[in-house]
Write a structure and sequence with these properties.
Strand order of the largest sheet: 1-4-3-2
CATH topology: 2,3-Dihydroxybiphenyl 1,2-Dioxygenase, domain 1
Structural class: alpha+beta
Number of helices: 2
Helix content: 10-25%
Shape: globular
Distance between the termini: 32 Å
Strand content: 25-35%
CATH class: Alpha Beta
Number of strands: 4
Length: about 90
C-alpha cells in the first residue's frame, strides 16, 4: 500500500486533498494495449485522464483516470500477476 503522497505522485495528482480522496481503485488487465483502451473507454464515458498509460519502473505499465464522481482509478498491467485463466478454453 502507498501512503497519500506517494500515491498522489504516482497518479500525477496533488496530495493536498482537494479532489483526491487518498486512495485509488485498481483494475488489473492483460496486455498493455488494454490499459490504453480502458482509459480511452473511461474518458469517452466521462472520466478525466489523470496520467496516460506508460511503462513503470518495476516493469509494468499503468495509467490513471478520475471517474465522473471524482474517484481515482489505476489501470495496470503487472507482468508478475496473472489476471486471465491459465486454460484458454475456460
Amino acid at each position: 500500500m502507498y501512503g497519500r503522497e506517494p500515491l498522489a505522485e504516482d497518479a500525477a495528482v496533488s496530495s493536498d486533498g482537494s479532489g483526491f480522496n487518498g486512495f485509488a481503485l485498481a483494475h488489473n488487465v492483460g496486455p498493455a494495449i488494454e490499459i490504453d483502451q480502458s482509459i480511452e473507454q473511461a474518458s469517452t464515458a466521462g472520466a478525466t485522464l489523470s496520467k496516460a498509460g506508460q511503462k513503470t519502473s518495476w516493469g509494468g505499465y499503468s495509467g490513471y483516470f478520475k471517474d465522473p464522481e471524482g474517484f481515482l482509478w489505476k489501470v495496470a498491467l503487472n507482468p508478475f500477476f496473472w489476471v486471465e485463466s491459465e486454460d484458454e478454453n475456460e
